[in-house]
């Protein structure tokens, strides 16, 4: 028993910082990559990137927290009932993450090919920075789907097109 507690305490030295690093990396991924893409979709941005596994990144935020709680509970050591509750929480978070992966591949991936064209977008996987086959870029104007151009370029083209339309409308009013 004492050897197990001692080993758990040794493991806690690296497991707790690892858990916090995983949490920070996942939070950064959600805030820096996934949230702007969702915001762009809601704002009807000219170029949008769909990441089918984005639900996993959001649900996975809880995993490092529960993992750190399990490491601490084993290092203290806590009673068997507390350890069982932490174990059930860990299994629950893992089950939610597996369900999230299933939803991502079985619902989000096919749904984008149905919903995005209805929202006025066209698939464009030739833009610069298209990371892999697991991400899909969509543009609101097919003319903006140009090989080697970035999503920022597409946004600039949309601004220029909007400015040109506004200036033409202003000339008609006079």
Automatic annotation (TrEMBL):
Keywords: Membrane, Transmembrane, Transmembrane helix. The chain crosses the membrane at residues 56-76, 88-109. This is DUF1240 domain-containing protein. It comes from Delftia acidovorans (Pseudomonas acidovorans). The lineage of its organism: Bacteria, Pseudomonadati, Pseudomonadota, Betaproteobacteria, Burkholderiales.
